[in-house]
Amino acid sequence: MKKNIAVLPGDGIGPEVMREALKVLAKIEKKYKTAFKYEHALAGGAAWDKYGEHLPQKTLDICRRSDAILFGSVGGPVREQQHPKWAGAEVNSLLGLRKTFNLYANLRPAKLYPALASASPLREDTAKKGFDILVVRELTGGIYFGEPKGRCGEGESESAFDTMIYSRAEIRRIAHIAFRAAQSRRKKVTSVDKANVLMTMVFWREVVEEVAKEYPDVVCEPMYVDNAAQQLTLKPSQFDVMLCGNMFGDILSDEAAAITGSLGMLPSASLAENGFGMYEPGGGSAPDIAGKGIANPIAQIMSAAMMLKYSFAMNEAYADIAGAVEQVLNEGGRTADIRQPGCKTIGTEEMGSLIADKIIF
Predict the structure, then answer these.
(1) Same domain for 129 and 214
(2) Is the terminal CB of the chain with fewer CB neighbours within 10 Å at N or C?
(3) For the chain, what is the domain count?
(4) What is the per-residue pLDDT across 238-297, written as a single tens digit (0 to 9) for each?
């Protein structure tokens, strides 16, 4: 049976790194005698150029008839963010897809490969210990989507407001995702909150502790968000699964990504309850290097690997790609963002080819 995949390369380096992910998936098709049917669609600035909107109905229709979405990156240069083509491109595209398909669970693995220890901004002795963290972020609730929000008043009395709100059901379902993930890892969940200040977070902690009782084999540790941010730089190896609300997860997953050495290394999965998912790299569209052939495709390639694992239950194929990436890194393959003395700096296309070549059968 063919697996239908909606491919949304997006803007900037998106199309470049997407080509390499599809190159790697072609090797997986051959090895596992399966077939992927791709339908390409536009999002972000690329969609604006043709349709005058960032998430056109045609793109939504393609996504609806797919089994998974493989997403690239959207957005334009910072200096052009007020241009209609770019204003709200990321919000309209990503948040639109998340809400449309109820993609409530965001999984962002952050792993410091031993071969890249010296590329990390962490202190040398800390980096050498390495880390392997899975940030589980609630994606469709919290302050990003809470109502009411807006502005009121004028002059010096003008103010703006947002509302943070979580239901018991929303907290429970994301907590179950985190605890189930921990069961197949190192059996520890660190639940990040701000329960010393925010009533929403008092509630978050209470509900997470209720869910924790259903997983006696998993250690549950609550931690304030400010301490979690600090501990990520002091001793990241202490973390296994980090369970976060929408805003805290957004911030901490980016921090976790940065300490691996490059945002170009970080994939992500956004999942619905039925196994449908959208898979995208953690970095941005990097318009400053678009078209130069120097972008790191590993995040996009590993996002495709996560698609195989979470939407298609192809765990062995996921392991093949993850192993290929690590092998290339161990052999000294480096794109510009992770360049190191003594290693060969290669381009986007060559990195993709090296990884694809490591998938043998």
Answers:
(1) yes
(2) N
(3) 2
(4) 999 999 999 999 999 999 988 998 888 999 999 998 889 999 998 889 999 999 999 999
Q: What pairing do the DSSP bridges indicate for beta strands 344-345 and 333-334?
A: parallel
pLDDT single digits (tens) 206-239: 999 999 999 999 999 999 999 999 999 999 999 9
User: Which structural domain, as residue segments, surrounds residue 237?
Assistant: 121-134+143-259
270 exposed, middle or buried (CB, 10 Å; 0-12, 13-18, 19+)?
Answer: buried
Contacts for 116-124: CB closer than 8 Å, 24+ residues apart: 116/260, 116/261, 116/265, 116/329, 116/338, 116/340, 118/340, 119/261, 119/262, 119/338, 119/340, 120/259, 120/260, 120/261, 121/258, 121/259, 121/261, 122/233, 122/236, 122/259
Say yes or no: 125 and 252 in one domain.
yes
Enzyme catalytic residues? 144, 194, 226, 250, 254
Total-model pTM: 0.93
